[in-house]
Each structure stands twice: as C-alpha cells, then as structure tokens.
Amino acid sequence: MEAPDIRRLSYIFPLPLALRPGLCESRTMKRLAVLLALLPSVAPADGPITPEEFERLVTGKTFSYASGGIAYGAEDYLDNRRVRWSFLDGDCTEGEWYVSGDQICFVYDDIPSPQCWTFYLRGGRLTAQFQSDPAATELYETAREDEPLYCKGPKIGV
Fold first, then answer.
1. Between residues 2 and 64, which one has the greater pLDDT?
2. pLDDT tens for residues 8-60?
3. DSSP state of 2
4. Contact at 8 Å (CB) between 3 and 34?
5. Per-domain residue ranges for the chain?
6. Cα 49 from Cα 129, distance rounded (Å)
7. CATH architecture, range 51-145
8. Is the dihedral of CA 125, 53, 112, 92 positive or negative?
9. Cα–Cα distance between 123 and 14 in angstroms, integer?
10. Cβ pair 79, 94 in contact under 8 A
11. Beta 92-100 vs 82-86: how paired, if at all?
12. CA-to-CA distance for 7 and 37, rounded, in angstroms?
C-alpha cells in the first residue's frame, strides 16, 4: 500500500513545522509525519458546532481562512456578534452574524444578502461550508490571533 502524499495532507491537516514537506526528507520522518497527520484528524467532525460554541470560540479573535491551499480572507469577530471581513487586501467591510437553524449567517454593509455557513471543528480548527452552494466553497482556519485585522482607512476624495 502506498503512503498518502504528505504535501496533500498538509493542506487538510496542518502539520507541525518540523514535519512539513521539504523540512524533513528522510523516509522515516515522512512516514512518521503521515501517521501523525492521520491519527487525530481522520475522524470526521461529529456535526456542526452550536451557535453558542461558535460564539465562545470566535469572539475577540481574528481568524484567517484558506480554501484549496490558497489564502481566502480573514475575519475579526467582535462583541455583540459584529464582524469585520477582509480578502487580505487591506479593504475591510463591517457586518454582523446571526443564527439561522444550525447555520451561521453573515450580512455586511456592502453585501446585504445573507452569506450562510455551517461551521465544524476538525482537529481543533474551524472549517466552514458555504450553504448557498455547498459544493463550491469550504474554508478552513489557518490562523487564530488576538490582534485585529489590518484595515486601510476610509476612502476619501471625490
């Protein structure tokens, strides 16, 4: 049986720095990395996290997300279910989140139509499935910080 490709797994299950591809080239270390990546994380999430769990986890934090190995964006989760989103370009949009069934929905000042997601915890990290088109977008947490997003100031001029 052929071992799974560690490069592919590292996008799905974040690995400790010492076990990432290119840093440890020995065959033994690669096998160890594959085993460690598979052990705690192979089990699928039990189900969506509750809105209360989501709120406890995210409030006061900034989460960065990726999709398919590519940085997607980041969001500040503020008090009173307020949020600030950026596609990592310095432009930020303000909004809020609310609960709809087992989904967390977001509305933003410049995108008033609801953007609804189902959130899961996998390996201690958030993953989110976009509900308007479940086959299209799945985001996964790449970083969790206490620092706020970098946002450029308001646009001025004519």
1. 64
2. 434 333 434 344 444 445 444 444 333 333 333 333 446 899 999 999 999 99
3. P
4. yes
5. 6-41, 51-145
6. 12
7. Beta Barrel (2.40)
8. negative
9. 9
10. no
11. antiparallel
12. 11
